[in-house]
Amino acid sequence: MPQITFWFEFASTYSYLSAMRIQDAAKNAGIDIEWKPFLLGPIFKAQGWESSPFNLYRAKGFYMVRDIERIAASRGFPFRMPVPFPQNGVQAARLALVGIEQGWGPAFVHSVYWAQFAEGLNISERETLSKALTVAGANVEDAFAQAESAEIKSRLRSNTGEAQAKGIFGAPSFLTPDGELFWGDDRLESSILWVTGPRGPVLK
Amino acid sequence: MPQITFWFEFASTYSYLSAMRIQDAAKNAGIDIEWKPFLLGPIFKAQGWESSPFNLYRAKGFYMVRDIERIAASRGFPFRMPVPFPQNGVQAARLALVGIEQGWGPAFVHSVYWAQFAEGLNISERETLSKALTVAGANVEDAFAQAESAEIKSRLRSNTGEAQAKGIFGAPSFLTPDGELFWGDDRLESSILWVTGPRGPVLK
Fold first, then answer.
1. Residue A123 included in any domain
2. Terminus of chain B with fewer CB atoms < 10 Å: N or C?
3. What's the predicted TM-score (pTM) here?
4. In a domain, A203, yes or no
């Protein structure tokens, strides 16, 4: 089956838009999704940003909120900006890595995004994460324990390093097996078309 | 007729994508386009950038080139990065303002973008601009003379100030009469839908 890799950061507003629809989109297109949580913080830091560009550049941040409000409304789901923004998604990302191994990853990811951007909850809080784990069908205590393992911590660091090495600078990003990078929720369809064809003029 | 304002900067790669298709898109949708050249330089400078973000952030710049290559190819037209990038589009913008008054503005804008991003010419050179003026049906000498007038210079400064006041931080941007801002070539359709309806859930 054709595949794309879905690189997501839990604090990212546009990743929420994609997380809400990528499973249906993949099913409809007959493709597989590889789920890859990573952290944007170290990537932003490496280019001199100490926070989200939506905080650093006010006009851009103001626009982003309205842009997502409009898109979410047109797709029939809610959106609210979490407080604080950006949230700390490190533990959620580690849990997602556990879930991806155990099969409840996608449901957990969906549930964490929903908690943050639809319900306005704080995803760095254990209560929020416990609820998402329960919804996803995970063993809550076991998941938290595994998320603290050296192996999982190292995998998240390694995902982030891999993202940076592959030229990823924002989220969501979609990467095809032949190395084509697509950035932003509005490029999800293009990335799917890339692996399913027809592709139009060949660019290789 | 419904209307959107097309805010464009001649040095902007994504503005090229929109300039190539906005007239057809507007005609098909039955809407008017108000053409508004402005300068991104002062807006970038105000947020601490001394060049294009595509130069300042390498991964982003690298991605942008590939993204536009793919989009241009899928739409059946060429794309090449101009040297130098970003180009100085001040004189082109002043000439566009003259043309917008005299009726040859859209043809001139189209021609300048084509010269820069399809033919790889330098749009700060008089020869390139003269050719675009001729193609657009302008009186070349008269256009250059008027572009140097205090009134036109002041109008370009005022457009740039207006863009900034309206929260515009990049190009292309599309603004509706009721104040909805859409940023990026990939939001052209959304901006047209906003003024023509149906709009889906009302967001006011």
1. yes
2. C
3. 0.95
4. no
Residue contact B63–A190, C-beta within 8 A: no
Cα–Cα distance for residue pair A111/B99, rounded to 1 Å:
54
Pairing of strands B181-183, B173-175: antiparallel
Q: Is the ipTM of this complex over 0.85?
A: yes
Chain A / chain B CB contacts < 8 angstroms: 59
CB contact (8 A) between residue B67 and residue A203:
no
In a domain, B46, yes or no: yes
Q: What is the CATH number of the domain that holds B7?
A: 3.40.30.10
For chain A, 204 residues long, the average pLDDT of each consecutive 10-residue run is: 96 98 97 97 92 92 96 94 95 98 98 97 98 98 98 98 97 96 97 82 50
Beta bridge partners of A183: A173
Q: In the β-sheet with A32-37, what is the strand arrangement from edge to edge?
A: A32-37, A3-8, A173-175, A181-183
Print the domain residue range for B76.
3-196
Number of domains composing chain B: 1
CA distance A69 to chain B (A): 8
Among candidate residues A93, A97, A92, the one with its CA nearest the CA of residue A129:
A92
Specify the pairing of strand B173-175 against strand B3-8.
antiparallel
A32-37 and A3-8 as β-strands: parallel, antiparallel, unpaired? parallel
- Residue to mutate among B67, B191, B192, with most A CBs inside 10 A, is B67
d(CA A161, CA A97) in angstroms, rounded, equals 15
CA A36 vs CA A97, A107, A116: distances in Å:
8, 14, 19
Q: At A69, list the tokens.
A: 């409000």
For chain A, strand residue ranges (E) read: 3-8, 32-37, 173-175, 181-183
- Which among A14, A50, A64, A169 is the top mutation candidate for probing chain B, defined by the most B β-carbons within 10 Å of its own β-carbon? A169
Place of tokens 């990078």: A181
